[in-house]
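Module 6 notes. Inverse folding takes a fixed backbone as the condition and produces residue identities as the prediction. Think of it as a translation problem where the source language is geometry and the target language is the twenty amino acids. Below is one complete input and output pair. Work through it position by position during the lab.
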């Protein structure tokens, strides 16, 4: 029978046999899959695993620093690369969702390729691909694999994609990945994190992306997510986040009329992201969250809650 411990033992032995003394590069995303893959490889080959964690400037508030610290605390050989400016530059003026994905994907490939080139004699690329990714090969992967297709359109493969591939999680499901992670001693909070799309806040800012919009959405998102945690609701929700809408609406503040941004909050229940139902969050929670957002986040004067299920509405708005 399958147990996390037998899986770990076999996988570590397999990785040692397969990789030997070779060097491996892996892109960490802050998500469960890439983290568990990294810890398994670290157990098998230690410092020959070179992890790269890229800040695309579209992560949640404080995420880059706090997750990087956490990775270092876990003993991973990890390099944090802050490429926020490069991504924002690449996204300038782009409004179309698929074009944004492509721009983010291509920027990621460039940054990752640059970094991989700095590792002498690296021969393997490790990925946190899990079984559902293998069968569906949907866009729902954060790392390099998500972007291979769009890069094909541009020309030849970047060098890191010519590396040999190692995917220690390719035969198991998400819940099994979480159990393996728990057995490996990974922080339960990290293992229980909601899924977060590779293009990050880039597909939650409808329309074009600016540094100011990212900052606003990070504040709104942090209030919503921290509130879910404080109210004990975070673990009851499969995924949650906020969208910054490309409309202004009229409000009042004191004697003044305001004409400011509107944000939509979304929280869904799901098992695999293929279908999803909106979550019946308590009105008291929504009331408090809405007040907090409008009082604390300058530039936002209206909050709405998304009560659409998938299908036909997708989880993300873009
Ligand atoms: P949708 O919006 O299609 O989302 O209902 C289903 C799941 O996939 C995530 N998602 C993405 N993940 N790159 C990713 O890595 C993407 O381009 C992307 N688009 C959607 C979404 O967050 C949800 O978990």
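Target side of the pair, the amino acids:
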């Amino acid at each position: 029978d399958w147990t996390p411990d037998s899986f770990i033992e076999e996988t570590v032995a397999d990785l040692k046999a397969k990789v030997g003394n070779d060097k491996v590069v892996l892109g960490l995303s802050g998500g469960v899959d890439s983290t568990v893959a990294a810890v398994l490889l670290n157990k098998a080959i230690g410092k020959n695993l070179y992890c790269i964690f890229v800040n695309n400037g579209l992560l949640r508030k404080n995420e880059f620093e706090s997750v990087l610290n956490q990775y270092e605390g876990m003993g991973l050989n990890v390099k944090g690369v802050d490429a926020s400016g490069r991504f924002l530059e690449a996204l300038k003026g782009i409004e179309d969702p698929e074009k944004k994905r492509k721009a983010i994907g291509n920027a990621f490939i460039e940054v990752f390729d640059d970094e991989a080139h700095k590792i002498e004699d690296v021969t393997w690329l490790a990925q946190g691909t899990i079984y559902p990714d293998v069968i569906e090969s949907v866009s729902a992967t954060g790392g390099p694999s998500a972007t291979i297709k769009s890069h094909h359109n541009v020309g030849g493969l970047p060098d890191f994609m010519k590396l040999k591939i190692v995917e220690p999680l390719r035969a198991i499901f998400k819940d099994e990945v979480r159990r393996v992670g728990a057995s490996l001693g990974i922080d339960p909070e990290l293992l229980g994190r909601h899924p977060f799309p590779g293009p990050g806040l880039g597909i939650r800012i409808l329309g074009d992306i600016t540094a100011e919009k990212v900052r606003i959405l990070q504040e709104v998102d942090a209030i919503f997510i921290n509130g879910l945690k404080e109210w004990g609701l975070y673990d009851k929700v499969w995924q949650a986040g906020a969208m910054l809408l490309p409309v202004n609406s009229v409000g009042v503040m004191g004697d003044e009329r305001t004409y400011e941004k509107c944000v939509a909050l979304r929280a869904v229940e799901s098992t695999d992201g293929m279908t999803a139902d909106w979550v019946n969050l308590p009105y008291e929670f929504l009331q408090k969250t809405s007040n907090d957002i409008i009082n604390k986040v300058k530039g936002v004067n209206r909050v709405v809650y998304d009560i659409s299920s998938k299908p036909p509405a997708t989880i993300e708005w873009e």
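Reference fact for the lab report: DSSP finds eleven helices and nine strands in the chain.
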